[in-house]
Amino acid sequence: MTSLRVRPVLAAVVVLAAVLAGFLLAPTDPTRPVSADVAARTINDKHVIAISVDGLNPRALKKLGRAGTPNLHRLIKDEGAGTVNARAQLELTITLPNHTSMVTGRRIKAGKGGHGVTWNDDTVTKTVQQAAGHDVDSVFTQVHAAGGTTAVYATKSKFWLFERSWPKAVDKNVIQVEKNGAVVKALRDDLATSPASFSFVHLGKPDQMGHKFGWMTPKYLRAVAKMDKLIGTIIAQVESSPSLRTSTVIVLTSDHGGVPGTKNHVWKKNREDYRVPFAIWGAGVDRADLYAINPHRAAPGRSRPNAKADPQPIRNGEVANVSLDILGVDAVPGSLWDAAQDLAWK
């Protein structure tokens, strides 16, 4: 974290501004608990590594097969509880809004209780709280309130949003633009010495190649295979340590897919964009179809159920609360997806 020194007079102005900002950004519902003020359950001794493979169209897994993506197959199909038919967010199938849903458990649209992050670059300097118009908690604040530690490892500069929004709850923030190997190495180094209770990992190569050459092109598929190898090194790091092997769970998903033959993923009503994988693998998790062990979630087939559908499909926004459930911590206050923490993972 960067520290700043201010002159005494300026400091007084800063303090006053902070007080006013806190007043203006206070929760609109005074009865809603805020994790910074209310103690959550004490965190257990598990570790969660949430991995988002940006732009991962599940078609790539079928195209490359087990030989080309052995580690993704391990997580989703062969050893973990997974599905290749989860759903991205309803409002937008783009990167930053969907990742913000992953860490807050909220939908996107602020007027419907969402987080309000609709931009997708690093030129906007607002916080999540400013986008929503009130306080917004996250998986980071909940883990911190329960006595745990957090870390972010990302390959796009726009992910500074997380530390900017929850500066006291993101203990480590590694941003290496388009350097997927460096990001994974940083995670692995920390796993070997002081693993965070919750680590969020963003791998962006498939999205980058999809935009440059097109989804499902040879270069896009090679990017997916490369990410599979990097994920394999994370798995190997976990399995090489007796303590990590018995305590670590990986939660895997994506923010969106991409339409084969195009360089875009903005068509929120196109299945190629809104279908994503979701898997849970690791200590205490058995192989299962995620829908089969969650009959209160409905496999959506080719459809795109809205937020009022009952039952709901599995969504990428469930990352926050299923991770907290694994860690023995209460759900994110004000969240929607898996707010009851009833997504079965074992």
Automatic annotation (TrEMBL):
UniProt name for this protein: Type I phosphodiesterase / nucleotide pyrophosphatase
Instruction: Return the annotated region ranges for Disordered.
Output: 296-315
One Pfam family hit: Phosphodiest
Show the PANTHER family listed in the entry. Answer: BIS(5'-ADENOSYL)-TRIPHOSPHATASE (PTHR10151:SF120), ECTONUCLEOTIDE PYROPHOSPHATASE/PHOSPHODIESTERASE (PTHR10151)
